[in-house]
Amino acid sequence: MDKFTTLTGVAAPLPIMNVDTDMIIPKQYLKTIQRTGLGKGLFSEMRYRDDGSENPDFVLNQPAYRNARILVAGDNFGCGSSREHAPWALLDFGLRCIISTSFADIFYNNCFKNGILPIAVSEAELDRLMDDAKRGANATLTVDLAAQEIRGPDGGVITFDIDPFRKHCLLNGLDDIGLTLQKAEKIDDYEKQAAAKRPWT
């Protein structure tokens, strides 16, 4: 998993409440277990018209936001079914940080396991960040995980809370497998001792 330290980039505004995982990545894209290639299906029912052409009104199709790295979204983001394809699609598109007032628990946990930083802020703070995001590519945000700060284009700073363990994992690029591999030496020692004690197994 890629480390998350400091991220500076364009923030796309998505002022929609209750964006569920089916909106993030519709069911027809769930046939794969590959984590890559799902970016094309991200928000596909809003991004594309029935004939497959792009919907120019959708934010991520607009020139200023095609390379957005941050998404500023309405309350209760990631609700609905527990599909891990949702953070896979966001990450494959290039989004590394989602800011909202609240997240569905399973989606929130899945973000951390895939190198995405979900940040919960107050309604007033979200309004400020949404205003910044609506200014387009000329207004970038900086998310500093170590300092737990979001810095706006005009110098404003918003601080955020994060669980220390999750922060440690993101800063060091540790997913569940990475955490396990940190104990590889102890695991090997245990396996050797177990084999010596029970050679018949």
Task: Sum up the structure in keywords.
single chain; 201 residues; Aconitase, domain 4; seven-stranded mixed beta sheet; 16% strand; 7 strands; alpha/beta
What's the total number of strands? 7
Which CATH class is shown?
A: Alpha Beta
Q: Could you say which overall geometry the principal axes of the C-alpha atoms support?
A: globular
Radius of gyration: 19 Å
SS-based class = alpha/beta
**Mean pLDDT figure:** 92
- How are the strands of the largest sheet arranged? 4-3-2-1-5-6-7
Query: Roughly what percent helix?
Result: 25-40%
**What is the N-to-C succession of helices and strands?**
EHHEHEHEHEEEHHH
Q: How is the CATH topology named?
A: Aconitase, domain 4
**Parts with pLDDT < 50 across at least 5 consecutive residues:** none
Summarize this, please?
This is 3-isopropylmalate dehydratase small subunit. The chain is an alpha/beta fold.
What would your notes on this structure say?
The structure is a single chain. This protein is an alpha/beta fold. 33% of the residues lie in helices and 16% in strands. The chain has a 7-stranded mixed beta sheet with strand order 4-3-2-1-5-6-7. Helix 4 links the parallel strand 3 and strand 4. The longest helix is centred in the last third of the chain and has 14 residues, at 184-197. It is globular and about 65 Å long.
